[in-house]
Specification:
Blueprint: H1 2-22, H2 26-46, H3 50-75, H4 84-110, H5 127-132, H6 140-147, H7 152-173, H8 180-184
Helix pairs in contact: 1-2, 2-3, 3-7
């Protein structure tokens, strides 16, 4: 049963990703990307990585896609903009790179040489043991502890970078209205 669900969710994710690339409308591409994110979250559920599935839905399918849709709506993206000759060359180049990546992934998947699985250490309750290094486990408690202690500064810097990017998009997309008085003079 899990195999059938894996193939169904994989097919949904791949079809949505292909539609995202091939759709000429930016809004339809964004909605296809949401479906691809949801399919990825379903694959995480099949792997019993429930925390990653929830983060995938809340952060990517929720917050990031809402931001993308706001950007698309603010910039008023039309499909007729730009040079078609440049877009055709870019499409061919991107397709070639994508094909090479898929070929490398397929070859590495069937070669039999896989990375060794890491061993997971239990979270120590002793603060002296945590000073040497924060052990990682699959629990969300250890993830949250390490995120808000050892990795607090990079977490805050990433938040401020996202805020600056959002303000930049709003400033760039703001349309300047020319008043009628300046046109007459």
């Amino acid at each position: 049963m899990l195999d059938i669900l894996f193939y169904v969710f994989s097919a949904i994710t791949l079809i949505a990703a292909v539609l995202m690339i091939l759709t000429p409308s930016a809004v339809n591409g964004a909605f296809s990307m949401i479906v691809a994110f949801l399919g990825t979250a379903a694959l995480f559920v099949l792997l019993e990585a429930y925390f990653l599935a929830i983060v995938q839905v809340v952060v990517y399918a929720g917050a990031v896609m809402v931001l993308f849709l706001f950007i698309i709506m603010l910039l008023d993206v039309e499909k007729g903009e730009g040079s078609t000759q440049y877009k055709d060359k870019l499409t061919i180049g991107a397709a070639a790179v994508g094909f090479l990546l898929v070929a490398v992934l397929v070859c590495s998947a069937f070669s039999g040489a896989h990375l060794p699985e890491p061993t997971l250490a239990a979270v120590a309750e002793n603060p002296q043991a945590l000073e040497a290094g924060i052990p990682f486990t699959t629990s969300s408690k250890s993830f949250g502890y390490s995120l808000f202690t050892k990795y607090m500064l990079p977490f805050q810097v990433a938040g401020f970078l996202l805020l600056a990017a959002m303000i930049g998009v709003i400033v760039v997309s703001k349309k300047h209205e020319v008043s009628a008085e300046s046109d007459n003079s």
